[in-house]
């Protein structure tokens, strides 16, 4: 009985999860390429503006943390290498994977590597149109072509951490797979930006 | 089996890989100089050197650091730790002492990288080490004193 209840719960949960973030098919009926492209980016924006991404994409200073994007505690700074202060790098606390606390609920997030996005890739408080322009600009996106951007969104481990953030943190909407597919479809339709 | 070098001694440990390093140090190896304060990376009392860099041992499962080299306060050597020790003693930095092994580890790590840190650099590097006795002013002074000694 219990097993079948679990199976039902899993079956029910799967489509609900996918619905958070619509795949490219949901936009197929927008005939105009540029309008479809902008709509695809707006869907990607659900991920880009989620706290899992925003916390480490600040426009200045250090990271925020948690689902409410509070100040990082302990206090940390960006540092010259986007990796914290000399003497207190991110890796003083963050390991190569998420680590559950022993004896209390919650976890400390981790991944190898673990660092802030550079300032040029900060987008807290920016509009989706501004984030889009920034993401496409090799001067500000770390010299990436659109193809490399797709690879980053679809394959990068630290991007993927957003969907596997450890106990006590809400995952980014959808999945990295859908996010990658949206990025692909956005690029193929001309990589237009929402206004 | 987990393989670690602790204070220069190679060892194989038959422990659950999820066990935090802090537990292994204190309970298995009886290296009790490293303290437990919070268990959630908020206080710095459990700081050790992991492959030469400071690391909070309470959030470091040993399975994550197989083959690493760990140095605790008991195994620290070199000019920076000696200067820190002398400066700490000269200024009577500790009060209850609970946080101090972590403070000393962080201060030493800072001086190894910045021989003459500014107040700001000290505050940034030491910001994760809490002291419930509020010895912060003496800590900062002692780091400056240690830096002066190191200058020779
Ligand atoms: S005991 Fe590890 S940071 Fe507090
Ligand atoms: S000396 Fe008491 S906690 Fe720091």
From TrEMBL, chain A:
<protein>
    <recommendedName>
        <fullName>Isoquinoline 1-oxidoreductase subunit</fullName>
    </recommendedName>
</protein>
<feature type="signal peptide">
    <location>
        <begin position="1"/>
        <end position="18"/>
    </location>
</feature>
<keyword id="KW-0732">Signal</keyword>
<dbReference type="InterPro" id="IPR036280">
    <property type="entry name" value="Multihaem_cyt_sf"/>
</dbReference>
TrEMBL record, chain B:
<keyword id="KW-0411">Iron-sulfur</keyword>
<dbReference type="Pfam" id="PF01799">
    <property type="entry name" value="Fer2_2"/>
</dbReference>
<dbReference type="Pfam" id="PF00111">
    <property type="entry name" value="Fer2"/>
</dbReference>
<keyword id="KW-0001">2Fe-2S</keyword>
<feature type="domain" description="2Fe-2S ferredoxin-type">
    <location>
        <begin position="1"/>
        <end position="76"/>
    </location>
</feature>
<dbReference type="InterPro" id="IPR001041">
    <property type="entry name" value="2Fe-2S_ferredoxin-type"/>
</dbReference>
<dbReference type="InterPro" id="IPR012675">
    <property type="entry name" value="Beta-grasp_dom_sf"/>
</dbReference>
<dbReference type="InterPro" id="IPR051452">
    <property type="entry name" value="Diverse_Oxidoreductases"/>
</dbReference>
<keyword id="KW-0408">Iron</keyword>
<protein>
    <submittedName>
        <fullName>Isoquinoline 1-oxidoreductase alpha subunit</fullName>
    </submittedName>
</protein>
<keyword id="KW-0479">Metal-binding</keyword>
<dbReference type="InterPro" id="IPR006058">
    <property type="entry name" value="2Fe2S_fd_BS"/>
</dbReference>
<dbReference type="InterPro" id="IPR036884">
    <property type="entry name" value="2Fe-2S-bd_dom_sf"/>
</dbReference>
<dbReference type="InterPro" id="IPR002888">
    <property type="entry name" value="2Fe-2S-bd"/>
</dbReference>
<keyword id="KW-0560">Oxidoreductase</keyword>
<dbReference type="InterPro" id="IPR036010">
    <property type="entry name" value="2Fe-2S_ferredoxin-like_sf"/>
</dbReference>
């Amino acid at each position: 009985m219990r097993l079948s209840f679990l199976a039902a719960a899993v079956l029910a949960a799967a489509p609900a999860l996918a619905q958070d973030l619509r795949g490219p098919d949901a936009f197929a009926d927008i005939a105009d390429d540029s309008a479809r492209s902008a709509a695809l980016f707006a869907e990607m924006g659900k991920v880009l503006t989620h706290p899992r991404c925003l916390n480490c994409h600040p426009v200045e200073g250090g990271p925020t943390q948690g689902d409410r994007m509070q100040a990082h505690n302990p206090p940390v700074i960006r540092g010259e290498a986007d990796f914290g202060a000399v003497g207190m790098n991110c890796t003083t606390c963050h390991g190569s994977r998420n680590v559950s606390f022993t004896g209390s609920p919650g976890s400390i997030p981790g991944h190898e590597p673990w660092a802030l996005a550079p300032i040029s890739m900060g987008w807290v408080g920016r509009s989706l149109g501004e984030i889009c322009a920034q993401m496409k600009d090799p001067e500000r996106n770390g010299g990436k072509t659109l193809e490399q951007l797709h690879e980053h969104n679809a394959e990068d481990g630290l991007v993927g951490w957003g969907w596997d953030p450890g106990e006590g943190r809400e995952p980014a909407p959808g999945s990295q797979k859908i996010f990658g597919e949206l990025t692909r479809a956005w690029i193929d339709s001309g990589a237009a930006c929402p206004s | 089996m987990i393989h670690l070098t602790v204070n220069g001694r190679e060892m194989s440990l038959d422990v659950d890989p999820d066990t935090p390093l802090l537990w292994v140090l204190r309970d298995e190896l009886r290296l009790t100089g490293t303290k437990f304060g919070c268990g959630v990376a908020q206080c710095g009392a459990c700081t050790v050197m992991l492959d030469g860099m400071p690391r909070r041992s309470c959030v470091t499962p040993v399975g994550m650091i197989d083959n690493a080299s760990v140095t605790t306060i008991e195994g620290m050597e070199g000019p920076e730790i000696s200067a820190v020790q002398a400066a700490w003693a000269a200024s009577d930095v500790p009060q209850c002492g609970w946080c101090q092994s972590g403070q000393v580890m962080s201060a030493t790590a800072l001086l190894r990288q910045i021989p003459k840190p500014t107040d700001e650099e000290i505050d940034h590097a030491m910001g994760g080490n809490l002291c419930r006795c509020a010895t912060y002013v003496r800590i900062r002074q002692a780091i400056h004193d240690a830096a002066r000694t190191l200058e020779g």
